[in-house]
Design brief:
The chain is mainly β and about 120 residues long. Helix content is about 0%, strand content about 40%. The strands form two sheets. Strands 1-2-3-4 form a four-stranded antiparallel β-sheet, with no helix packed on it. A three-stranded antiparallel β-sheet has the order 5-6-7, with no helix packed on it.
Length: about 120
């Protein structure tokens, strides 16, 4: 959500001051690009009784609306290796605008780093 300097919801952001990240169960990291676009790294449950989680990356435009030009209608889901539970642990935007997402493993322990070519 975005608040005004008076501490109330900013109705000009998203539809009602609150932006929802589609298909993201848990947001762990947020980054704002120089152009005002907002990135959120999180995770989504893989479903089907697997108990696995996949790292996700969502992007909003500066007004808080889903950036449909990014990934699949504003979200990228990165399935990990089989039997490897994963979750977003780090997120940054490089000087060239490229996105780096760090995903940490739950079992077996470890981590992965993904660099997105999209800006």
């Amino acid at each position: 959500m975005r608040l005004t300097s008076d501490g109330v919801l900013d109705g000009s952001f998203s539809v009602d001051g609150v932006a929802l990240f589609r298909r993201c169960m848990l947001v762990r990291r947020v980054a704002v690009a120089d152009d005002g676009r907002i990135l959120a790294g999180g995770s989504i449950w893989a479903g089907g009784g697997s108990g696995e989680f996949y790292p996700t990356l969502s992007r909003l435009d500066p007004t808080g609306l889903r950036d449909v030009s990014f990934g699949d209608e504003g979200i990228m889901i990165s399935p990990p290796e089989p039997d490897y539970w994963s979750d977003t642990r780090g997120l940054l935007i490089q000087e060239d605008g490229r996105i780096v997402l760090v995903a940490g493993g739950v079992y077996p322990e470890g981590f992965g780093v993904g660099r997105f070519l999209a800006t």
